[in-house]
Design goal:
With 495 residues, the protein is α/β, with parallel strands linked by helices. It folds into 2 domains: 319 residues, TIM Barrel, CATH 3.20.20; 34 residues. It has 18 helices and 19 strands. The strands form 3 sheets. The protein has a 9-stranded parallel β-sheet with strand order 15-14-13-10-9-8-7-6-16, sandwiched between helices. Strands 1, 2, 3, 4, 5, 17, 18 and 19 form an 8-stranded mixed β-sheet that branches. It has a two-stranded parallel ribbon with strand order 11-12. Helix 5 crosses helix 8 and helix 8 packs parallel to helix 9. The longest helix is centred in the C-terminal third of the chain and has 19 residues. The two termini are 49 Å apart.
Length: 495
């Protein structure tokens, strides 16, 4: 039997709202014990046991990023790797990739490609309409059979009301949600039937006027949501709004939920941490969709998270090459990287005492699994070990050069929170050299596996420390050991 034990670690379980310091025992990838008291001698007699001091650390279910834009499916392996390093055990990718995820065979291929690795689970949104054109419904049923967890046009809204009604009716029949990028394209300067349309560049208001940039009115978001809610009420479908960003939209969603409609929504870190003021120097790293809104809108997003109107937080990851961003603002590409900062930026809500830690983890773990009906990462007895270990007090600064994807709109931002390890059944990213240990006065563990024994090459140091020996006593002990060694070796010297 192989045992891994985390001693005195804070255990978070959003499903049961559990938040207590406990001892966690894992046997062959299964959690067999979560308890306040533990008899380590029960396990230290086994040859294959590793015990870690979890003091100051937290263990929780793995994370789910429910909105990831690969750009190209060739980026899948790297994205999985980076997700794993950042505590994400499951990702959901948008259909507007290259190639587009608009038919069953491509979706099946993506699933098979991802299953060949031990990296995070890959879930797929199917394209709601053919070629993302918004004019003709895709083969929803067949894509669902191949594993599509929902349907969306990705970064484009489904504009045609009749098409949307048909999509909702069919999606309701196969028990899949419709995910909408809510934006009235005519108001925002997008017309899918034309390539010559002028596209809005930032939130419409005083700042856009001062900067001379084309504005996108905030009502473009709520108008689309109001239409969709009417259709959702008509069809009974589960309707999900992606990256909500305005007070009006959140208010409308809140009222729809009070009516009992099957409506959910998510947001992303830029919308609860930033506002349009950051664009005053024309920094293209802040050019995203939806655009950054007013301070009042930002506060409304926080309020929506606090009262449960907003169900989840996604990274809205949409990496761009440096060349496409180092352009005049109007010509620069839309989008920003987010998968590497999702965890730490979400924790800002905790550090600012806006929500508690259990709620924060729910927003990026439990809730996305409920919305999309995908396997929930759990921290339950007799379940596969799919969890993360993190230090929520670890301080660092976001630096673009340290990231795999660009651009980040949070360059130079001071953050707290670091993923130390990600566990998926039969896989662990735990690296003892990265793990933060805090000595509580005893160096526990079986002599064959104790880290201090490994580094010292002998159990003597551990035993001396447990006995309360000070530095002077330890030095004297080893001086005698060296003297004895020099004497013993005499009989073996050739010269």
């Amino acid at each position: 039997m192989a045992y891994t034990i985390f001693k005195s670690i804070n255990v978070l379980n959003p499903r049961t709202n559990f938040d207590e310091k406990s001892n966690v025992v894992i046997e062959n990838n299964k959690i067999i014990s979560i308890s306040k008291k533990i008899n380590l001698e029960t396990f230290t007699n086994h040859k294959s046991v590793t015990i870690y001091d979890g003091n100051g650390l937290t263990i929780s279910p793995g994370l789910i990023d429910m909105r990831v834009n690969l750009g190209n499916t060739e980026n899948l392996k790297l994205t999985q790797k980076v997700a794993l390093e950042n505590g994400i055990t499951s990702i959901v990718i948008l259909p507007n990739q290259t190639p587009k995820l608009n038919n069953p065979s491509i979706i099946d291929h993506i699933h098979k490609q991802s299953e060949n690795t031990i990296l995070p689970k890959v879930n797929v949104y199917g394209a709601a309409t053919k070629d993302d054109a918004g004019l003709e419904m895709s083969e929803l049923g067949l894509m669902s059979e191949m594993g599509a967890v929902g349907f969306t046009n990705g970064n484009k809204s489904i504009k045609n009301s009749l098409v949307m009604r048909r999509l909702m009716s069919y999606a309701e029949m196969i028990n899949r949600p419709i995910i909408q990028h809510a934006e009235d394209q005519d108001l925002s300067g997008i017309n899918q039937a034309s390539t010559t349309s002028i596209r809005g560049e930032m939130n419409e208001g005083e700042i856009s006027t001062r900067l001379g940039l084309i504005g996108i009115p905030s009502c473009a978001e709520v108008i689309m949501i109001e239409r969709d809610i009417r259709l959702a009420e008509l069809t009974g479908v589960h309707y999900h709004v992606a990256h909500v960003s305005t007070r009006e939209a959140i208010d409308v969603i809140r009222q729809a939920k009070k009516k009992g409609l099957n409506i959910t929504c998510d947001t992303a870190p830029p919308y609860f941490l930033l506002n349009e003021n950051v664009l005053l120097n024309y920094d293209t790293s802040f050019k995203i969709s939806p655009p950054l809104r007013t301070e009042d809108d930002r506060m409304a997003v926080i309020e929506g998270i606090q009262d449960g109107t907003i169900d989840a937080i996604a990274s809205d990851h949409r990496a761009r090459s440096k060349d496409t961003k180092v352009q005049p603002f109007s010509a620069a590409s839309i989008g920003a990287a987010g998968i590497e900062t999702l965890f730490s930026l979400t924790l800002e809500l905790v550090h600012k005492k806006l929500i508690n830690l259990n709620k924060a983890i729910s927003l990026i773990s439990l809730n996305p699994s409920k919305i999309l009906k995908i396997k929930e990462p759990t921290l339950e007895l007799h379940e596969d070990a799919t969890f993360i270990i993190f230090d929520d007090s670890f301080k660092s600064t976001i630096n673009q050069k340290d990231l795999n994807f660009s651009p980040t709109p949070f360059e130079g931002r001071n953050i707290k929170g670091q993923i130390l390890a990600t566990f998926i059944a039969n896989y662990s990213s735990l690296d003892d050299s990265r793990f933060v240990f805090e000595w509580d006065g005893s160096w526990f563990g079986h002599p064959s596996t104790s880290l201090i024994d490994m580094y010292a090459g002998t159990p003597s140091l551990r035993l001396l420390l447990n006995a309360g020996a000070n530095a002077t006593e330890i030095v004297k002990y080893y001086e005698k050991e060296v003297e004895s060694f020099l004497q013993d070796r005499q009989q073996y010297l050739l010269y």
